Amino acid sequence: MKSLLFLVLISVCWAEPHPGNSSLEHERIVHIQENGPRLLVVAEQAKIFSHRGGNVTLPCKFYHEHTSTAGSGTHKIRVKWTKLTYDYLKEVDVFVAMGHHRKSYGSYQGRVSLRESSENDASLVITNIKLEDYGRYKCEVIEGLEDDTAVVTLNLEGVVFPYSPRLGRYNLNFHEAQRACAEQDSVMASFDQLYDAWRSGLDWCNAGWLSDGSVQYPITKPREPCGGRNTVPGVRNYGFWDKDKSHYDVFCFTSNFNGRFYYLIHPTKLTYDEAVQACLKDGSQIAKVGQIFAAWKLLGYDRCDAGWLADGSVRYPISRPRKRCSPSEAAVRFVGFPDKKHKLYGVYCFRAYN
């Protein structure tokens, strides 16, 4: 019985319409298609370069495939910008626009807007760029049931530097490492930033935290204490470790600054407290580690005099290697963390511009 029913159903489905069959005179063919052309979102550049304190436009335009129109006019266009985390698993809201409605979020409030140079322009303008703005941004355009996205990377000109506190090597958990960078006018470096620094010659044997929670270190000159002489140069990866219990150094990233970095000419050498007061008396503050690295790398600052910095360390920047002043390489030379009360040095100051 079931077989017979199955054959009957097949016969009905496959029966061809007969011209003389009046019961089929209203039969018609239904065509199913998408409602209009597909929405496309495009970023004209995948990477944009800028610097701290600058202004930048992240490009994003939308249109319909096979047409030059921005939208169908049936639905309102919604534009949403988010910042992506390193693993793309989380998104941080940056800016949303729909019609006359505009909303910015978090630290981006008052600093972001749409360029809107044309009706299909969804490019994001960011002003007064911060170190934390570095990263990947997603532009999403939604029209009715259609949507599409494009991703743009914002790169910042800057410098990566290794950092360890007065306590010595491998004394920072992840959260302490974040604070240490912030205290030195910087942020934790990303893997991409560390990789670029390695390609530019950064060689450091101590492993340090990165912003994604991994622990890595860059080696340009393989040697026994740093992975072995027979290994290839590269960024060595220790993997991901417990952010509360594991302790390492940290790699920080800083960019240019809005101010003046300088060595204070003073008639005598100073203790740490005297150095702090001398900068204040000169209308500035004792400089931070990130500021000496930025002045050295980005401005070519060169001085052979060792001086106090805000964290209690003593360093000096050499851009032109010479005898008695880092003869082999350009670098920010690290003297150490001397006794603050008894050791005497010069001081590096920083005066911020209003």
Helix count equals: 5
**Any low-confidence stretches, pLDDT <50, length ≥5?**
1-34
General shape: globular
Whole-Å distance between the termini? Answer: 92 Å
What structural class results from the helix and strand content? Answer: alpha+beta
Count of individual beta strands: 23
Estimated radius of gyration: 30 Å
Mean pLDDT: 89
| N-to-C series of helices and strands | HEEEEEEEEEEEEHEHEEEEEHEHEEEE
- Bin the strand percentage: 25-35%
The largest sheet has its strands arranged as 2-11-10-5-6-7
What kind of sheet is the major sheet? Answer: 6 strands, mixed
Helix content, binned percent: 10-25%
Function: Stabilizes the aggregates of proteoglycan monomers with hyaluronic acid in the extracellular cartilage matrix.
Domain Link: 159-254, 259-351
Signal peptide: 1-15
Protein name: Hyaluronan and proteoglycan link protein 1
Describe this structure in words.
Residues 37-153 form the Ig-like domain. Residues 1-15 form the signal peptide. Residues 159-254, 259-351 form the Link domain. One of its GO terms (molecular function) is hyaluronic acid binding. Disulfide bonds join 205-226, 304-325. With 354 residues, this protein is α+β, with helices and mostly antiparallel strands. 15% of the residues lie in helices and 33% in strands. It has 5 helices and 23 strands. The strands form 5 sheets. Strands 2-11-10-5-6-7 form a 6-stranded mixed sheet, with no helix packed on it. A hairpin with a 4-residue loop joins strand 14 (208-209) and strand 15 (214-219). The longest helix is centred in the first third of the chain and has 13 residues, at 2-14. The N and C termini lie far apart (92 Å). The relative contact order is 0.11. The model is unreliable at 1-34 (pLDDT under 50).
